[in-house]
Design a protein that fits this description.
This is Transporter. InterPro entries: DNA-binding_VF530-like (IPR018668), SAP_dom_sf (IPR036361). 67% of the residues lie in helices and 0% in strands. The protein is mostly helical. It has a domain of 46 residues: Orthogonal Bundle (Transcription Termination Factor Rho, Rna-binding Domain, Chain A, Domain 1), CATH 1.10.720.30. The longest helix is centred in the middle third of the chain and has 20 residues.
Length: 73
Amino acid sequence: MANEQPNNPLHGVTLEQVVVRLQAHYGWEKLATKININSFKNDPSVKSSLKFLRKTPWAREQVEQLYIDTFAS
């Protein structure tokens, strides 16, 4: 059962872990230039970003794709 999604680089990674790792790697300012969402630009925090991303599928897809492009290569 542990190998149900062996080719999925996001398997076992929470959205919070994705946001925290991207923020640590890029910082909020650069992250906001890569993905144009207000929760990265205006008073950014992990909590506000997670709240927005959980309600906005297109933004979540962009964040997850950036994570894959950055760390799964």
